[in-house]
Every structure is written in C-alpha cells, then in structure tokens.
Design goal:
14% of the residues lie in helices and 35% in strands. The chain is of the alpha+beta class and 204 residues long. It has a single domain, classed as Thrombin, subunit H, CATH 2.40.10.120.
C-alpha cells in the first residue's frame, strides 16, 4: 500500500502547477466567451444620438449575449421596462447599435433584441443538465455600465446549489403569494459569484 501510494503521490502535480493550470483554464474560458457578451443600455425616448455617445452613461443598463451572428442578442426581460417609453442600445467593442425588441417573455424573464450588425460571434451555449454543486463558474457582464468598451468584467465562484426557487412576491391587496415567473418554480442555479448591478443578462 505504501509503495502504491508513493508512486501516485510522485505523479501528482505540485500545488503551484495545479494553480497555474486552473488559472490558464480560467483565462481561456474568459477569452472564448467575452466576444459574445455585450452591454445593454436603456433610456427614455427622445434622447436621440446621445444614446450612442461613448461618453453617455445610461441610468438603466444590463448585459446580454450574442446568440446569432446577424444581430440577435439574448438578455433579461426585467431590464427593458416599457418599450413604448424607452429606447435601447447595445454596445459591442466600443460601438453602439440601436436595438429593438424582437421577442420577450416575462414568465421566463427573457428577451431578444435585434441590432443591425453581421459577422458577430454567437456564444456557445452549455448544457445545464450536466451541472453539479461545487463546480467552478465564471460570470461575464456589464457591471455599473462599464462594459461599453467591449470588455465585459469577469468574476468567479462555485455552483452553490441547483433547482432553487426565488422568494415569492406577496400581493399587497390580497396578501397572497404570487409566482409570476419560472424562477419561482425551482429552476434557478445558485452561485456565490459576486454580481454587481448591470450583470443581469450576462453569461455564466
């Protein structure tokens, strides 16, 4: 037993080598995904060209991911507000594009924006059924609207739990619990990744 253990131990990588391998894998994952992560801005109608000004800092913002090379962006429904009252922009590599809502589903809290662009880099979608508690995950997004330069911010952590439910809302008039979205039915991935305002809609 001792001899077998000794041979196995000799083949184990050093702590530094293991840390460097993890670092390299993290860097590679970020580099692969970040061209597909975009900044989304929302502003009241009537702002005009200022919405696409690189120096303009929107008061409402989120993240999105490219899902089609010809300009389809997946984001979150709750970040868009009233489409009758708002205009939208998507920022990719320091360039702003006006966006329109192509599709939206409040139950799934998802929306698709359309921009006039081509040759974009769609994100490679993963298989959530293969996830396990304890796995490392990386989040890429547009925290505090700073990713308009085409450089989404990255943070990392682990999967803390799976099939979680969001806390139900309570109707003020009836006192009854409301479950308006799919998030209230045990579909969420719980993670300890640090997420700032504006990260909604980004990649995990």
């Amino acid at each position: 037993m001792f001899a077998l253990f000794g041979r196995a131990a000799a083949q184990e990588p050093s702590g530094l080598a293991a840390a460097l391998a993890l670092e390299e894998a993290t860097v590679a994952a970020v580099e692969k995904a970040e061209p597909s992560v975009v900044a989304v801005a929302r502003a009241r109608k009537g702002l005009g060209p200022r919405l696409l000004d690189p120096e303009f800092i929107p008061s409402e913002f989120a993240s999105g991911v490219i899902v089609d090379r010809n300009g389809l962006i997946l984001t979150v429904y709750h970040a868009l507000g009233d489409p009758e009252a708002n205009d939208y922009a998507v920022w990719i590599d320091r360039r702003g594009y006006r966006a329109v809502i192509k599709a939206a589903d409040p139950t799934f809290d998802l929306a698709v924006l359309q921009i006039e662009a081509d040759s974009l880099t769609p994100i490679a979608l993963g298989d959530a059924t293969r996830l396990k508690k304890g796995q490392f995950v990386i989040a890429l997004g547009n925290p505090l609207a700073i990713a308009r330069d085409g450089r989404p911010s990255a943070s990392w952590g682990i999967i803390a739990n799976l099939h979680r439910k969001a806390a139900p809302q309570t109707d003020a008039a009836t006192g009854l619990e409301e479950r308006d979205t799919l998030h209230h039915y045990g579909t969420l991935i719980q993670t300890d990744v640090r997420l700032e305002r504006g990260g909604s809609g980004g990649a995990l």
